[in-house]
Amino acid sequence: MPGDVERLRQMITGYTISQVIAVAATLDLAEMMAKDAMTPEQLATKTGAHGPALARLLHALVALGLAEEPHAGQFRMTALGSLLRKGAPECELALMAGSEFNWRTWGDLLYAVRTGETAFEHVFGMKNFEWTALKPERAAAFDAYMANYTQRAAAAILAAYDFSPYRLIVDIGGGNGVLMNGILSSTPAEGIIFDTLTGIEGAKQRLGAEVAGRYQLLAGDFFQTVPEGGDAYILKSILHDWNDHDAIAILRNCQRAMRSDSTLVVIERLLPERVENSAAHREIVMMDLHMLVMLNGRERSKAEYAALLAAAGLRLTATIPTSSQYAVMEVLKADASSAINIDRA
């Protein structure tokens, strides 16, 4: 086991490993080296890269356990490196982590910590969502990443929470359609996906034929209004994108649209009350910093979500853990006579 000094040095230089992996994913090396060992010259011809420089990258991949050199000067991916094949969630993550907008923004973390302001706006001169709207390729990459990410969490969410009592379910900001597709595939419900025009384009591609005729795609702005008449409203990974003021504005619009017997289902990561040195806690606190530098959003604890909900005239009635990093929070109108205090966490 490495000592403290070595472990700290690995942490300090972790950014170099992230870039090695991102470049390998960008060049699609995992796909090219999945079966046969190849030379740097062969790979350079396929990728348009500089042969000698590519050889140096391949040696780094070998040292990281992502590639191997079965014969001198010939390289192929290991089982670990093969996880970076195009379309795989890990490949999408590597491309996101190594992209210009992510790399430059995290490089300005000091500004965000000193000021409490969004590093992205400081670097690019506009809000993240505004910049993304001008970059269709960035929007497509983020949509693919989020679809893969949601797909992995959806099974855990559906196993933990029963959507079958609801006849009409409205997914607020549910553009990629992955969660709604899972819900409609496992229940007789009908659904509405409410998002921006750009957002609902992703849903058109991912809602399967088996749920055709049971959903609507509605474009709008959840800061203005949300569709009325739902038995259940879903906010998944929405509130953490925004500061408290904006999150409350979204929740108030949901509260106005809800009937007295409607349920709001908030699906978010929950910050622990006390952070410990563990992989699970590291993941959520690093995402909390990601929200700071990218969007001026934040991850929140259960108590902080309860306070946001109360400010919007809503009441947290149940907290349900899942086998993923997400928790499901069941919410009613604060004046709903059926509201009860339950904590299943």
Report a brief summary of the structure.
By secondary structure, this protein is of the alpha/beta class.
Largest sheet features: 8 strands, mixed
Total beta-strand segments: 10
Helix content: 40-55%
Order of H and E elements: HHHHHEEHHHHHHEHEHEEHEHEHEE
- Residue-averaged pLDDT: 91
CATH class of the largest domain: Alpha Beta
Reported CATH architecture of the largest domain: 3-Layer(aba) Sandwich
The global form is globular
When the domains are counted, the total is 2
How would you classify the helix and strand content by structural class? alpha/beta
Relative strand content? 15-25%
Please, what is the CATH homologous superfamily of the largest domain?
Answer: Vaccinia Virus protein VP39
Write the layout of secondary structure elements.
Blueprint: H1 4-12, H2 14-26, H3 29-32, H4 40-47, H5 51-63, E1 67-71, E2 74-77, H6 89-97, H7 100-106, H8 109-115, H9 119-124, H10 128-133, H11 136-160, E3 168-172, H12 178-186, E4 190-195, H13 197-206, E5 215-219, E6 232-236, H14 244-257, E7 263-271, H15 279-294, E8 300-301, H16 302-311, E9 314-321, E10 326-333
Parallel strand pairs: 3-4, 3-6, 4-5, 6-7, 7-8
Antiparallel strand pairs: 1-2, 7-10, 9-10
Helix pairs in contact: 2-6, 4-5, 6-11, 11-12
